[in-house]
Amino acid sequence: MNNSNARYIDKLNSAASLGELAYRKFVNKDFEDIAYFEPNYLKEFLVLKSKKNPLLL
Asked: Which domain of life is it from (predicted)?
């Protein structure tokens, strides 16, 4: 696949690979400012009212 807007990482999705990627970001000082970071959810987060009657539990 070739797409200029995507990055493909040739690593397995495992804890061993995650450590290597995290170390590489640490060495390059590639940090996120988590005080102002908002996660990029694929769907909007919805808070729904429970359909169950709490008195019948």
From this structure: Bacteria
